[in-house]
Amino acid sequence: MKQTLRFWGIAFLLFSCAKEDQLTNSDGNLPFAPPAVIEVSALADSIQPQVVSLSTVPSPRVIQVPKQDGGYYSYPDENGEYQTFPLLAPKKKELLVLKDENGEVIKDSNGQPFLLGEGGISQFRTYSTDDGLALDAVNCSILDSRGHLWFGTNGGGVSRYDGNSFTNYTTIQGLAGNTIRSILEDSKGNIWFGTIGGGVSKYDGYSFTNFTSENGLGDDIIFSMVEDQSGHIWFGTGGGGVSKFDGEKFTNLTAEEGLVDNVIISTGKDRDGNLYFGSNGSGFSKYDGKTFVNFNETNGLASNRVRSIRQVQSGEIWIGTIGGGASKFDGKTFQNFSSSDGLAGNIVRTILEDSSGFTWFATETGISRYDGSKFTSYTRDQGMPANSVLDIVTDNSGKLWFSTDGGGVSRFDGSSFTSFTEAQGIGDNLVLSTLEDKNGYLWFGTAGGGVSRYDGRSFTTYSAAQGLAADIVYSIIEDQSGNLWFGTGGGGVSKFDGKAFTTYSTEQGLTNNEVWSIAQDRQGNLWFGTDGGGVSKFDGEKFTTYTSDQGLAGNVILSILEDRSGGLWFAAVDGGISRFDGKKFTNFTTAQGLIDNAVIRLAEDPDGNMWIGTEHGLGFLSNESIQSIASGKAVESSFFKSFGTTEGLPDNMILQIVPMDNRKIAVGTNLGIAFFDAPDSVNTDFPLENLEVFNSDTGYPVKDLTDGQNGMFQDSKGILWAGTGNNKTALVRFDYQALIRNKKTPTVFLKQLRINEEIISWESLISEDPNSSRSSEELNTFGKVLSNTERENLKKKFAGLEFEETTPFFPIPQELVLPYRHNHINIDFGSNELAKPYLVEYQYILEGYDADWSPILKKTSATFGNIHEGDYTFLVKARFTGPAEGPAGEWTEPLEFSFTVLPPWYRTWWAYVIYTLVFLSMTYPVYRYQRNKAIQAEQEKARQRELEQAREIEKAYTKLEAAHENLKSTQAQLIQQEKLASLGQLTAGIAHEIKNPLNFVNNFSGLSLEFIDEIEEELDKMESSDALENVRDLLSDIKTNLTKIKHHGGRADGIVKSMLMHSRGGSGAMEPADLNEVIKEYVNLSFHGMRANKNPINVDLVLQLEEGLPKIPLNTEDFSRVILNLTKNAFDAMREKINKVGPDYKAKLEVRTKDLGDKILIEVEDNGPGVPDEIKDKLLMPFFTTKKGTEGTGLGLSITHDIIKAHNGSLDITTQVGEWTKFSITIPKGS
Predict the structure, then answer these.
(1) Which of 120, 375, 795, 964 makes the best surface tag, with the fewest CB within 10 Å?
(2) Which residues share a beta bridge with 267?
(3) How far is CA 497 from CA 62, 479, 484, 675, 870, in A?
(4) Which sequence spans correspond to the domains of the chain?
(5) Which EC number(s) does UniProt give (predicted)?
(6) What CATH architecture applies to the domain 748-901?
(7) Going along 463-548, which residue ranges are E strands?
């Protein structure tokens, strides 16, 4: 049978995948089609519903449930031959109950045994040495004021737990002894550890201070400790009475002063300031600061061996005894409780009141919870790692932590979730369906184990061996007469009247023997949804079957619901949903706005709204819409609303839906259960308010749910039962009201700082005292105490790092100042959420470094590298995302940590002073020399120009008359040529004169670099020292500056060469050349040069070169510069446009050639920003440039124009601002 179900499940998933491409979510923008309406009476006679009367078919099989094994049942098979199978009595299994030390069941006053826990496996999480705990035998524990847990072990020292890891302390760190019997945090935040034989240790977060009998302590065995209202610490000793420590000295009180005994194993206090001291055989003492009042068995105490004393909120004092159970003391009388009252055991070691007001007792045979009227106990059978419990502590979120003898520490997450499996008596671990009958019994249909009845104390299982139709039970209902109906996988449907099973199958007219859903309408008719056969109606006398032939949306019916108008709704996993009013089917699919056609579940909430579970999300149909549909009003738009993972659901596969009594909607998915508030108003779109998710990711024992009818079910007590697809959790009992919710926001703290990815023992950098906290921190950081050499190396590595002090418990340096070489920092942080730290989210920011807060993260570390010099503040905040009350789920106030990063030495103020002095000392002589040379040069040039002009005037005068008319015609041209000639002469003169000092700069900077290399070689021969290192650094900086001087001198030299070339003009020889090949070569060279340079851009390069051009006379070397200059300018212009317009702009460069007869046309066109008119006429002038700073010389286009004129060609520029620029060159075919 299990194999059959698994096969069906695989087929179901394959079917889902096949349909997935056809399914679309509901959207108001999608086309809407009115629902299909099919009148059954209007159908042809051949497809009218099939009706089968019981009077015309074999009688249903009836089997009386046997009371004992040994019976048989015979029935005729399809061939008429009788088959026989054995009948067995139902299987019954009692849940575990409390027993005494002899194994006898303990019963209450009504004769009922005490059920252990909630009957199943509770939510316990165990921590052991595998998780880092020092030892699995744990004697005592406390929660400190920072929200962290401390566990004292029976020989392994102390363990501190911060929610992520354990930190262990032993005698190696300075603890007085490794067997810890008691722990106390005083009002100053110090942690005290009472040892067996070593006295007591005080830990201030830095180091241990130990006190023994030599210091005045009454005895070196410390069983217990308590702090009084004055801040004095009292120690219960193993023979020295009690010792009071006032911070300076010990005062000892013994039996001579009236103390009940000199061996004190427990201490306590009440809110009036009285102290209590429990002995190991004489009762206990109450001390008011002056006198002792003693109590023992003669006063009514349960036992004279007092192991625990605790006052609860009501003011009563609970006393845990060894052997007598517990006593509740109201100041006058004792009320005693023992195992006969339901207490787990009579050796009570610790008593604690939790945040809900329950009182807990740690015993040698388990733990017990007292609610004021009864005890509920938990043992290993409910998930505890061991039965012997020595201490209890509660954390800030209300979770309980139990210290066990040998089992480590166990955390109890409350009684909200309890799991039941075959071990507790359920028929099979896969529970498909659930029902509560009128007697309050719960029935669980399983996938192969039949059906199990649960009465709160035992499971009784019925299967085919008792007469059930089959052992797979998909659906269960109770009819109006109190009969139970079970829809089975393969056997049809069985009716159970408490004594016998009556089975109906296809032989009696049922449409299919796989019955997935059952419902009874208000007329008493039963409706059976089947796997492939549609739905059968049974009125007690006949079956009437409806399929897709009669208008049903599909033939695989997983859910049936009757609405408030009496209409029946059918969920078809193969076709959507149908509403049947007895006459017609109205069908809804994705075409009408349904989120998905694969519908699994239907449920009605208290307001009459319908919730629809599908394979691809959750659908919603309001009661108002249902009434409109029922009234037959015209449907013009979608009624449906849809929800999925986008709205917060854990998964879109919706398997179960349960409207809860508290106006919550519980939705079971493939990835756990979601709870949200039922909507108050459905007139508009509404969110899933107060959504909570319960699954393995949020720390709860549930993941995927089963898909039978009522596989998730709320009973009459408000408990939610859910069948899961996991053998470990099987059936889950979920008490939503018992959830432990955080009542406080988490506290954020810093755990560790790492510099340059290295962990540091901070005390090792500043402390010289070997007995200080230095050794303790080194042990916790490195796992050992550093040697002197290792410590000195650590100090040397982090030399220059400064801080004032470190914080206790987690050493974080305060007022931290980092040298620039240590400007990489890692900050580890956390919170005091101990039970579920993975549900805490964080955000952080480093002010001065980050612009915004980080994304919301669950990571608990932040890394910042290459931090520039300055002051910084790190802020981190947290919030808890699990179940919380009030503001407990809100963001905390940010925790701050500030530090400073110093500049590197070469960016300090004194370095800049040196740079300024060096610069001035180097530049002033050069400036004077160059100024004098320039003055002399200019004077000589002026003299030469005057002489030249005089000669020209004289020549012009003698020829003036002859050339008068000619000069008039060429006057404008001569004026321009004169200007250019003068400019060329000036350029040549300036270039020649500037080149001399440039040669001086270049030669002497190169020579200086060689001198520095020689100095560095000599320094390498010397012994290393800090002073030499500083000299090296300074020489390195000077070397860098000289390199830059030489670089820029070379650049100026290049400019001068360009000026000389411009002034001289080209003089290369003309030779026939293939113009197209020259253009191809140098356009590609320019393009790849641009791509290899900084700031490359993407350009669509188009060459349109006319084929068959003849070779023309070219100075190829000069003409290549024309192509390079024009394409380079085009790339620069398009890069500028990309920077202004953005990435949507697509750069394009076109180069074209065309035969014009006696000339050849060359065009270079880009789609850059264009050239304004006021600039266009200046483009060919020497030294004119549109580029910024030193990016251009202004000679490129001027040289280009000269080269073109040298080839007897012409250059034209056309442009449209913002769109394009085109350079057109015409060159004659002959020279």
Answers:
(1) 964
(2) 277
(3) 11, 10, 7, 36, 84
(4) 2-61+421-738, 748-901, 909-955+972-1064, 1071-1228
(5) 2.7.13.3
(6) Sandwich (2.60)
(7) 473-478, 484-488, 493-496, 500-504, 515-520, 526-530, 535-538, 542-546
- Name residue, tokens 């139709």: 469
Question: Which regions of the chain are under pLDDT 70?
Answer: 1-31, 634-637, 683-684, 769-772, 924, 927, 950, 953-954, 956-1011, 1014, 1016-1035, 1037-1038, 1041-1068, 1182-1184, 1187-1195, 1231
Q: How many Å separate Cα 602 from the centre of its chain?
A: 34
What would the pLDDT profile of 1039-1049 be if each residue is shown by its tens digit?
A: 776 666 666 56
Q: Are 411 and 835 in contact (CB under 8 A)?
A: yes
CA angle 92, 97, 101 (to 5 degrees): 130
**C-alpha pair distances (Å), 762 with each of 146, 263, 745, 804, 806:** 21, 43, 30, 11, 7
Alpha-carbon span 365 to 363, nearest angstrom: 5
Cβ atoms of residues 348 and 321 within 8 Å: yes
Q: Annotate 585-641 with DSSP letters as a single string.
A: EEEE-GGGT-S-S-EEEEEE-TTS-EEEEETTEEEEE-HHHHHHHHHTPPP-S--EE
Neighbours of 517 (CB within 10 A): 27
What local confidence, expressed as pLDDT, does residue 491 receive?
96
Residue 1172 corresponds to which amino acid? P
**Top CATH class, 2-61+421-738:** mainly beta
Characterize the bridge pairing of strands 617-621 and 1112-1114.
unpaired
Distance of CA 1130 to the CA centre of its chain: 49
pLDDT for the residue 1200:
87
**Separation of alpha carbons 1150 and 304, rounded Å:** 105
Buried b (16+ CB within 10 A) or exposed e, 531-557: bebbbbbbeeebbbbbbbbbbbbbbbb
Beta bridge partners of 1199: none
Mean pLDDT of the chain: 88
Residues 6+ apart with CB under 8 A from 1229: 1110, 1112, 1158, 1159, 1160
Distance CA 1183, CA 1173 (A): 18
Tokens of 1021: 């021969």
Q: How many helices (H) and strands (E) does the chain have?
A: 12, 78
CB 1083 within 8 A of CB 1091: no
Q: CA geometry: angle at 31 spanning 29 and 35, to 5°?
A: 125
Q: Rounded CA gap, 730 and 711, in Å? A: 11
Query: Who's near 520: CB < 8 A, 6+ residues apart?
Result: 477, 479, 480, 526, 527
User: Could you tell me the two tokens for 1055?
Assistant: 């400019």
The residues that bridge with 788 in the sheet, in sequence order, are none
pLDDT tens digits, residue range 1148-1176?
999 999 998 899 999 999 999 998 888 87
Which H helix or E strand runs over 361? strand 359-363
Give the pLDDT confidence of 947-977 residue by residue, as tens digits. 777 677 667 556 655 555 554 444 434 434 4
**Residues 47, 42: Cα–Cα separation, whole Å:** 10
Distance CA(1135)–CA(1087), nearest Å, equals 13
| From the candidate CATH numbers 1.10.443.10, 3.40.50.1860, 3.90.1150.200, 3.30.565.10, the one assigned to the domain spanning 1071-1228 | 3.30.565.10
pTM: 0.73
Q: Which amino acid is at 908?
A: T
Give the integer Cα–Cα distance in Å for 560 and 564: 14
Ramachandran category for residue 1194: left, alpha or beta (phi over 0 → left; psi -120 to 50 → alpha): left
Residue 1228 tokens read as 């004659």
Q: Is 485 helix (H, G, I), strand (E, B) or coil?
A: strand
Say which residue the tokens 């002033």 belong to.
Answer: 924
**What's residue 978's pLDDT?**
41
**465, 478 in Cβ contact below 8 A?**
no
